[in-house]
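Schema walk-through. Below, the input block comes first and the output block second. Nothing else is stored per chain. Lengths vary across the set, and this one has 337 residues.
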Amino acid sequence: MSNMSSTQTTLDVQALTEEIKQRSQFIDTLLTEVSSVVVGQRTLLERLLLALLCDGHVLLEGLPGLAKTLTIKTLADALHADFQRIQFTPDLLPADLVGTMIFNPKTAEFTPKKGPVFTHLVLADEINRAPAKVQSALLEAMGEHQVTIGDTTYKLPEPFTVLATQNPIEQEGTYALPEAQLDRFLFKVKVDYPTLHEEKLILNRMSGTVVPKAKKVCQPADILKARQVCSQIYMDEKLKDYILSIVFATRFPIKAGISGLASQIQVGASPRATLALAKASRAHAFIRHRGFVTPEDVKAIAYDVLRHRILVTFEAEADGVDSEQIIKKILQHVEVP
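--- output ---
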């Protein structure tokens, strides 16, 4: 009987993979179109797409001038999606973000004026420069996909994704994001310098008289349809256990047999990390045109899902150990199914 069910599962997965190949064609078109403007930054671009497919948000950390804004704007252009960039500053107010009630003297009534958060893609530039009140206003939008102005609650457009940036070197006059808020981000992506070859391409492409611009190749509705397909991608029970083993190793390293990490981890990953690993692994399989998840999918997104969810101890910081080194040790130790 088990052999029959196993054969049936194989047939179902094969049929699903064929469907995924058809449904995910637009991903290649989208990546090609964005790459015609943005040089390199393939990992960043893929993570932005995964966040859209998972209905999640991304925290980007990188030095200025590494094409973070250009990548997001170009993706919005190719997707035919609305885009807003908000520069976070210490004097920013929640109303500047979500909107406010405006008094109309003609009608003697207050009418709502919606803020820039009413869009598909929001770039929250230097999010840690804004005070806690503004950050918490964005938090409601991120978590609930709605905004309250006055006494009325308004739904945000779908898909809705926040892409927040942080500068890793300038910490003067900033308000560090609390751990509870960091946990709301699906990924924390580190953006690095381009290679020498990529920078030569940037120089040639961007120094001409005509700056390239992406054409509209798909619609926000394509992302919403793809989300439904992603949730159907097959994940074996062994892979679910693998994800759980990774997350539990961040909380109880001694039980996982990695006693050396016990003095380095202050707080492990939350259950949100488990859900994020599962969702993002399915989405990663989708953009690779597969109807099933492999351990490689989990490993590919593990760093981006976990790096902001593991708090290292002061002792570890003093020894120069960061969360990425801890994740590397866990992935090396936990048995791959």
